[in-house]
């Protein structure tokens, strides 16, 4: 078995009376994308701050890259990169200067530092912007610069704290490509997000954090399987067709006003084909249909009894 890139046991943290992390146990395998998912205020940023040695836990064990964060913080820092809310980008420097500064901080020899900076500018599509002050960068450029700065130190583990909060859909998709390309190099990614779809798209494993506790952990498929609720909704032209369909299929819930029939389904092609074959056989016309497969919103609702909809920061 390979060693976990990140491992916590009984991790806890409070601010005054407020318990922010309440005994969190988690393991992140090397080379995987792990997403810590939770609404605003769940404790995600606090978790990242502890794992990346920025603040200390009150209790529990935390190992990152094989080192104890409390006893060997320097060894942890040498192995990780952090981007996101504590971005190191200096607005008054150009993109290139920011990268050079990182190369100096990592004590890279001058020639190697220049090579690495040039390669990163190229790779992260910042060549044209290299000479502009970071203050003038767009949100997407800024995050690319932030990630490029992290990569100067060649980290084995990267923490991405809400990397797409506030980005438009196009920049969000671009960021997803970036995360996948980082993972393809074998870097372990610890990603926090409030977006269910993002965790679903990117993560090998997801943990749901709610009020400082992990309420579920697994692959996206495992989490979705926890939650029933997949169904097909069929709409008919008139009440006769609706009732005939109900009689023919022998299952489902009727909505007479909307002329719809909701049938439990895994949304798979085979079950859909069977369904339509039976309706076709009786010449029952379907006007419209939609397939609902359970998503992570359903998971959150099922596990917490409330939807994951809280105000944006
Ligand atoms: P998230 O990143 O999931 O939105 P945070 O980790 O930022 O959550 O915050 C979790 C809770 O801890 C929030 O209620 C927040 O107000 C509180 N908190 C975070 N940092 C501090 C601090 N330095 N002092 C007091 N309370 C804090």
From TrEMBL:
Subcellular location as annotated: Cell membrane
PROSITE patterns: ABC_TRANSPORTER_1, ABC_TRANSPORTER_2
Positions of the ABC transporter domain: 6-236
GO annotation, biological process: daunorubicin transport; doxorubicin transport; response to antibiotic
Cellular component GO terms, alphabetical: plasma membrane
PANTHER family: ABC TRANSPORTER ATP-BINDING PROTEIN (PTHR42711), DOXORUBICIN RESISTANCE ATP-BINDING PROTEIN DRRA (PTHR42711:SF19)
Family: Belongs to the ABC transporter superfamily. Drug exporter-1 (DrugE1) (TC 3.A.1.105) family.
Protein name per UniProt: ABC-2 type transport system ATP-binding protein
Organism whose genome encodes this protein: Thermomonospora cellulosilytica
């Amino acid at each position: 078995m390979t060693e976990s890139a990140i491992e916590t046991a009984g991790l806890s943290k409070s601010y005054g009376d407020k318990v922010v992390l309440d005994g969190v146990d988690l393991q992140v395998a090397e080379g995987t994308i792990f997403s810590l998912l939770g609404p605003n205020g769940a404790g995600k940023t606090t978790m990242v701050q502890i794992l990346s040695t920025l603040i200390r836990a009150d209790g529990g064990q935390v190992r990152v890259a094989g080192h104890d964060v409390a006893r060997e913080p320097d060894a942890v820092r040498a192995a990780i990169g952090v981007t996101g809310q504590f971005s190191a980008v200096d607005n008054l420097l150009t993109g290139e200067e920011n990268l050079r500064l990182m190369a100096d901080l990592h004590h890279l020899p001058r020639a190697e530092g220049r090579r690495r900076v040039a390669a990163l500018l190229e790779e992260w599509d910042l060549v044209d912007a290299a000479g502009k002050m970071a203050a003038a960068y767009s949100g997407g450029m800024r995050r690319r610069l932030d990630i490029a700065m992290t990569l100067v130190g060649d980290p084995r583990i990267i923490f991405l704290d809400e990397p797409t909060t506030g980005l438009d859909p196009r920049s969000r998709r671009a960021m997803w490509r970036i995360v996948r390309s980082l993972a393809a190099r074998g870097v372990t990614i610890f990603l926090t997000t409030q977006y269910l779809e993002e965790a679903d798209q990117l993560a090998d494993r997801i943990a749901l954090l709610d009020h400082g506790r992990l309420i579920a952990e697994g692959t996206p498929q495992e989490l979705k399987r926890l939650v029933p609720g997949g169904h097909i909704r069929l709409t008919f032209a008139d009440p006769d067709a609706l009732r005939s369909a109900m009689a023919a299929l022998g299952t489902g819930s009727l909505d007479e006003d909307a002329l719809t029939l909701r049938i439990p389904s895994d949304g798979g092609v085979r079950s859909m084909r069977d369904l339509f074959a039976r309706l076709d056989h009786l010449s029952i016309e379907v006007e419209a249909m939609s397939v609902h497969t359970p998503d992570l919103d359903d998971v959150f609702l099922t596990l917490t009894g409330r939807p994951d909809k809280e105000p944006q920061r």
